[in-house]
Task: structure prediction
Amino acid sequence: MGLKPIHGGCQCGTVRYTITAPPREVLHCHCSLCRKAHGALFASFGDYPATALTIDCGSASLADFQSSPGIHRLFCPSCGCQLFNRIDKWSDRVFVVLGTLDAGENPGHAPTDERHIFWDSRVSWYDTGDDLRKDTGYGD
Result:
């Protein structure tokens, strides 16, 4: 059974993409770098096979910021929207920022394939209110 293609893009529309496979899992990252990059309490990513991502337009304009050794945040330089993370040690995967999916698009994951990472770095004043697995790092 194939996955219906999932579409997304940046805020200004310069970068558009399509995903054609389900994610390995959905990760809610609480590290300080993700919190600052997204201006949010945590960032949610779909861990997809790199071969499942097609950048339909704007690939040449993507900017790459290496936020820590081996961690690349790819973003639109026009609007500043972060779209993807690439991690050197996992070159066969791409982490898609789920907030960039088009309205109504579902990441395509099973409800059991979702967890929090870098849980020890979370802000202390917010309760996520869920029973998802909570890892201190990537949990790999």
